[in-house]
Design goal:
The protein is 39% helix and 23% strand. With 98 residues, the chain is of the alpha+beta class.
């Protein structure tokens, strides 16, 4: 039997490593950043904690520019952070209902 290990990924906000399934993946593709809900979206992926404070840290530290190694318009990054916050609220409400 194969030993299946969970890949570890680093959050761009707090810069701590967590199991991949505990983080939100965001992708940069076609000059836009989107939350990758199914884990199969094309583009370069980065990860964020499911924590609003961590998302805000990433916003303040210009984490997308640092990780994608390019200048990205503030409108694009703000929309991505808003989408990530909405996704976190959706996930938290879904977990509370269980």
């Amino acid at each position: 039997m194969k030993d299946r290990r969970t890949p570890m990924r680093r959050c761009i906000g707090c810069r701590e490593s967590f199991p991949q399934n505990q983080l939100i993946r965001l992708t940069f593709h076609d000059e836009a950043i989107h939350v990758d809900r199914d884990g199969k979206s094309p583009g370069r992926g980065v990860y964020l904690c499911k924590n609003p404070e961590c998302i805000e840290k990433a916003r303040k530290s210009r984490a997308f520019q640092r990780n994608y190694k390019r200048e990205i318009k503030m409108e694009i990054t703000d929309a991505a952070f808003d989408e990530a916050n909405a996704f976190v609220k959706e996930v938290v409400n879904g977990e509370e209902g269980i």
